[in-house]
Structure formats: structure tokens, C-alpha cells
Amino acid sequence: MSKKGGSSHFVRLRAHKRVGVVKRKAMKWLLSPAAGPHRKEDSISAGVLVRDVLGRAKTMREVKKLLNAGGLVVDGKKVKDPKRPIGLMDIVSEPMESKLYRMSLSGPKLVPKPISEKSSARKYLKVVGKRTVRGAKIALTFHDGRNYIGDNNIKNGDTCVFSVPDFKLLSHIKLQPGARCLIVEGKHRGEIAKLEQIIQRPGSHATEALLSGQNGQFVTVAKYLFAVDDEFDA
After folding, report:
1. Which of 38, 91, 93, 209 would be a feasible disulfide site paired with 222, CB 3.0-4.6 Å?
2. Digit-coded pLDDT (tens) for 207-221
3. What is the CATH number of domain 180-228?
4. Domain spans of the chain, in order of start
5. How does pLDDT run across 64-109, given as a tens digit for each residue?
6. Whole-structure pTM value
7. CB 176: neighbour CB atoms within 10 A?
8. Which residues 6+ apart lie within 8 Å of 96 measured at CB?
9. Which CATH number is 9-115 given?
10. How far apart are CA 77 and CA 92, in angstroms?
11. Looking at domain 121-173, does it have CATH number 2.40.50.140?
């Protein structure tokens, strides 16, 4: 009987360059992230994060021992599966090392950025879907697959800030002129800029945005923006 389903590994050199994977030429195989809260091309597996990025293990066997011992916590929950996908804005903790990180962007690459204990209690979630459910309630879907019952004041493209680990809504950042934004796609991926104007294009053309960055003004697609506040560690 033939094997069904995708492979749990793929050739390391084929990994998208925006995923911050190291040792591309030194090792052939890369543990593929399983299906989960983040898209495969926008995430890395917990095993790769622990072994290749953070350097806490030399083999996948050591990774599994560390995970089983509670050595990695994501968004306040212990991670035991080495294939668990980890992506943008996830809060990562290494209790044994007393290290805290937010998965963010360094240039175009997804990397764990060290953050303070105060920052680790805040999770940024972009609204990517909105619908009405039973009881005339408004259900929001976030970029990491979470769902939340919100209200009509929160629009697609806005950002909600939740507490970690209890996930209570702390604040709401509107995607509107004046907002501080992280660009998560396109040639400006990884840059922080101020949103100046939303530009509606006719027909089927994507809505664009005019922003001001360190190198002056530029235009990008509006859906590439992730609104953040002044407390966000760039």
C-alpha cells in the first residue's frame, strides 16, 4: 500500500528565503511544519526553531527531549510537537533559558526577536476575516487562525492586541491614516512605516496605501500592512 499524505521533511535549499532558516548548505533535510495556525511558507516548525535557529539542540532527538521537558512555550502553551508551525507575532518563551521572543521580521526574514517580559504579555493579531454568526454576533478571524466574537467597530485589516496567556482583548488598532504599520509582504517586507493614505483603485485592482518610511514615501498594497502601536518592539 502506498504512503498517503505529504512528507514531513523537504530539501532545506528549497525553503523560502524569507523564512529565517540557517545551515541551508550544511544539512540536506528540513523538518516541515505541520498544518496549523500559519501557512507553511510563512512559518517554521518548532523543531527547526529550537535546533537550527536558537541552537538549543544538535539533533531532532534532543529537540524532542527538550520539548517534552517543557523547554518551549508558544503563546503561553507548552509545545510538544516538533512540527508545530510557528509564525509571525507568536510569543515564544524558553523557560529553561529565561528567554522571551516575538516572531517578527528582520528585513524579509522571519526571526525570533528578544523582547521584555512586559512585551511578552501582548500578542498582536490582524483581522483577516469577519462574518455574522448565530445570535447576530460578529465573529472575527485572525491571521493565525484564531476566532473571536467581537463587534462592528473592528474592521478587516485592523489589529487586536490580546493578553498572553489568558487572551483577553487589551486594545484595538485601526488601519487608518496615522497608524504605525509593519509591512509583511512585497519589496518593503520588514519595514516599519506610517500610513498616510488608503488609495482605492477602480475595478478589480487591489487597494493600495501611501506610507512614509525612513527613506521617504512609497506605495504598497494595503493588505500587506499590519498595524501596530508604539509599544511594538520593531
Report:
1. 209
2. 999 999 998 999 999
3. 2.30.30.30
4. 9-115, 121-173, 180-228
5. 999 999 999 999 999 999 999 999 999 999 999 999 999 999 888 8
6. 0.88
7. 13
8. 66, 69, 71
9. 3.10.290.10
10. 9
11. no
